[in-house]
Amino acid sequence: MPLLEGKKALIFGVANHRSIAWAIAQALASEGAQLALTYQDRMEKYVRDLAKKIPGTEVIACDVQQDDQLDSAFARTGEIFEGGLDILIHSVAYAPPSELENPFVQTTREGFHTALDISAYSLVAMARRAAPLMQARGGGSMLALTYMASERVMPKYNVMAVAKAALECSVRYLAFELGEHNIRVNAISAGPLNTLAARGISGFTGFREHMGITSPLRRNIEQSEVGDAALFLSSPYARAITGEIMFVDAGYNIMGA
């Protein structure tokens, strides 16, 4: 029997075929999960085209900065999945390009607010709405995507690093508060991947090449490897794991340089 047969998963963050969220969607579907993918208006066509590749996948409009749209998205999720939800994937992050180009000391108040709102607070907002749906199913798994710049300086990552630190702290507090309802909350800290978001960071290509040389496995990672890790964390095999940040980076995080 497929590992996730009968499980219902809501995935935020699919933008195109290179998205980490898309790799996770494919991994979950391969083990029997029924999916719903959200989209921003400007990404609707791409998300709908991808959804067609996995039979039975639903698509839901949602701008994570709008509470009314979050309310509608989770209400629609409840309708699609008959009142329950097992898996929530948060693969959402954004900072205005200028905040990644200018020195960190020049971070604007507006840019800081935008990055933290979209990249970190959105997890809290989603969790609050997902929890009742998961409780109806006897528990569930929430999973976010982060990056090691939350702990170490990665030039030009700037305010996004602060947002990832806030996201990781949120994972721990949510894990603590929702644990009594058998809801687990974890994050994957993935190595650099060629995604739409990563291409907006100056020096990304050089750092990816450096990681491929320096990491213990002497290579870079692939989107599918993050998808497989997400599958594990979303499955019964990880039933005693919560509040954790799992590195999927070919071991790069253990290195001193």
Automatic annotation (TrEMBL):
Active site positions: Y147, Y157
Pathway stated in the Swiss-Prot or TrEMBL entry: Lipid metabolism
Lineage top rank: taxon: Bacteria
Sorted UniProt keywords: Fatty acid biosynthesis, Fatty acid metabolism, Lipid biosynthesis, Lipid metabolism, NAD, Oxidoreductase
Recorded catalytic activity of this chain's protein: a 2,3-saturated acyl-[ACP] + NAD(+) = a (2E)-enoyl-[ACP] + NADH + H(+)
Alphabetical list of SUPFAM superfamilies matching this protein: NAD(P)-binding Rossmann-fold domains (SSF51735)
E.C. code: 1.3.1.9
One of the GO BP terms on file: fatty acid biosynthetic process
Single GO term (MF): enoyl-[acyl-carrier-protein] reductase (NADH) activity
Family: Belongs to the short-chain dehydrogenases/reductases (SDR) family. FabI subfamily.
Protein name (Swiss-Prot/TrEMBL): Enoyl-[acyl-carrier-protein] reductase [NADH]
Lineage, opening ranks: Bacteria, Bacillati, Chloroflexota, Ktedonobacteria, Ktedonobacterales
